[in-house]
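new request in #modeling-help
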Amino acid sequence: MKRHFRELSVAATLGLVLLTLAVFAPGFYQTQPLLSLLTREAPTLLVACGMALVIISRQIDISVGSQFSICSVCAGLLAGMHWSPALVVPASIVIGAAMGAFNGLLIAGLGLPSIVVTLATMVAWREGLRWLRQGIWVDLPDGVQWFGFSQSNGQFVIIGLALLLLVLLAFAVKHLAAGRFIYAVGSDAEAARLAGIRPQLVTFSVFVLMGALTGLAATMNVAQSPQVDPNSGDGLELRAIAAVVVGGVAISGGRGKLWGVFVGLLLLACVSPALTHLHIAAFWEKAIQGAIILLAVIADGLRNRKLVHA
Amino acid sequence: MSTEKNRFKNTLLRHETILLLVLVAEWIYFNMVGRNFGTLDNTYDILRHSSEIGLLALAMTPVILTGGIDLSVGSLLGLCAILFGKFWRDAGMPIPLAAACTLGIGAAAGGLNASLITWLRLPPLIVTLGTFSLFRGLAEAITQGSDTFTNFPASFLVLGQERMFGVPTQVWLFFVVAIGIALLVHRTTFGRSFRAIGFEPEGARYAGLPVNRRVAMVYILAGIISALAAIIYTSRLGQAKADAGTGYELFAITAVVLGGTSIFGGTGSVAGTLLGVAAIAVLNNGLVHAMEPREVAGMLTGALLLVALASSVITKKISSRQHRRQTKPIQPTQRT
Amino acid sequence: MKRIFAFLVLCALALAGCSKPADTTPASGDNGGGKKFTIALLPKSKGNAYFLSCKKGADRAASELGIDLIFDGPTDPDPAKQNEIVENWITLGVDAIAAACENKEGISTALRKAQAKGIKVITYDADALPDAREFFVNQATSQGIGYALMDEAARLCNNEGQFAIITGSLTAGNQIEWRKYIQERLTDKYPNMKLVDTRSCDDRKDKAQDETTQLLSAYPDLKIIVSTTSLGVPGAAEAIKQAGKAGQVKNIGLGLPNENKRYVHDGVTDSVILWKTENLGYLAVEAAYAAAKGTLKPGDKTFVAGSLGEFDINGDNIMLGKPFIFNKDNIDEFDF
């Protein structure tokens, strides 16, 4: 209980929000809108999981928004050329992984700082996409939406896929050696190296995984509507990092739980719907999200102080 | 040990020299390719357009030198801009008083960052990510998104739009701040401690440096400079809006890193930052004069940043290999 | 380090000083020197299908007139970018500027400078302050657009019921204007209708979809969603469709026909209001050219724009016409 205190406190906050809604705006609890909310957040969950791993390994990746946009547009274009979803999804994953690999090569291979590398790639890829596509939407042919399933089946598929990956990743990170290497490298790369782990390979792989997850998330987003907006990735990196931070993953590396990220994401995703249902004006949204992030961060800090001074 | 210091200094100087050469190359290229690029008017435009961002980059330099980062400077610019407008229009303050209060707000905001980072020992990236959202959110909430502040008195607009002694007014202010920061960072023991703190905070603490106080100072300073930039921005546009300064923090970080400051802290220079700001500003301006679309500027800036980083790492590796070759191993016969 | 700094300053000033003198900006007629007449078209932002379709018309006008057209705009949300682009065009020496203004007051600062240098300024789509430009090519007045949206919404709801607005951002100048006029029309003519909420989609279709889903759930009696951004209508339509409320909750807004054809045919979106954007671009370029050549002067009552024919001038507003309502019956005739 104490070990998971941080994650549980986020869950408690989420519970408080949900309780407030139950009392003051019970209309929030209808199946279809809730299902929609979860389906719409599923892609962000995948990206947040990837981001959590990146941050646990003591790096950061702020280029995921641009990667997401590029993969979305590519997936849309391929679907438009009548590729079947069975090919479009892997293609998008590969494109994302390739971009992740580019980041990884510079960060792990040349030892360049991740925040600067991903800042550069974020800008370069975003502007490159805009230059090529000029912001035009991609129209998808009929039958592509929901991967060809009906709406409710498609929604279950997407939510299920996201949850499945969450569970798989959480399992892998805890029980597979490769997963534990991520924590090791994030904790102390030098000690990890001396213990026989290859930090550069681990770092590289984490970025490739991030890209692959982003590519998959992009297809899950594309499948939810008949048109692709090339700006759909705008601000995604901030949403993912916010979810990770609120979820209790330490930016200094080496610590964090994926299910904490899940809860953090839900909490942040509820802010806008809660405002709407409680009839609070829209211009409070950013301030409240910023406050949640800060509170989560302060909570971390207070706990650190207690640990240090204990 | 002194050879190491020289080698180190050489590498640093080399980075800045290369950046200077890049800047000169850009200038020559755009002079040839662009229409009316090399005129005095355009040079003033470049200086005016990069004043606020340049100020943010200057504010960011000591922060990054101490091994920290401040993602909230752009949002703080927006918040200060609308608060400045509010102080003047709604609270009826005269412009100088409103400006002073705005600078105070900037200091307080920087103080918020500072207290969370030093007192709670939280990572600057995360704290300033939170304040990045919070400040922008407050700006939107206070203005309800749509309120804007305009019709400032002409005497105020002189700051951003007119010239003083032939040079755009805000450029004088920018140079004063630039020289001030440069002196602080490079010529005072106070400022030199920033690099020590960035290089090895624990070591600095054992050496007796009041690390927490120094670190707090850089964030408060960053807040004040952001507020100053907000005032100049408002004067240049003649309008204050909640979305002012969107994206400026990334530009500032790019300029600082391009200028050779390590993002991990410990090494860097104000001159490098200025060169970095200049290189990007000239690139953006030059591409417009060469009739290239904006997107190309973004792509080239990203590429330039990567090339600059990669080359500095590669040159360090080469020079360390050279150094190893130059150091003769001790021969047994030389033992005394 | 200070040496480098000083060297940089000297470099810049020296290069600026001994560079070629500016091509004086010619707003008057002929360019005997062989430099082609250049008009610069400023969208609110690049990467926006709406402005791209304006550009198509503008390109047509440019080729008919035999002039050069520069099309460039901000690629990020920084409100100061439009000013910087205009100022760059001033030094570049364009002959006329046609601008769609994100910030009415802010952009006027730069446009006035352009006028002072002899460059003719026309605005289109979103106006600046009247003294900063000669004419405003008005696709429809803000009042006309706001009233049209409100009237169409009321018509579809039999003048009673709740409705909500999806806006692109809370800070965009012209969207604020349109919302103001929607509110005005609502209070004047439709006492049985109620505006329950206004939400921003941050210029993203996906967010418009999310916000609409929540609106549908929070306000079960909602009758219609009105979008003041072209990103709102398709996003809202998808949300209504997924909620199974197509036909029960109506959907209208400003938007491009191509992006909405699908939903209009499915009966999810009832009407899309816009105007002939290509003609808007065409008219803007023609007007800018005519103003620069002197054939369009303040006080004129009509204006003949190339192959489009004659347009009325209302004061200093060149009227494109009235807002056009696209619906099931006519949307297929259009391709933009």
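bot summary: Chain B touches chain C through 61 residues (CB under 8 Å).
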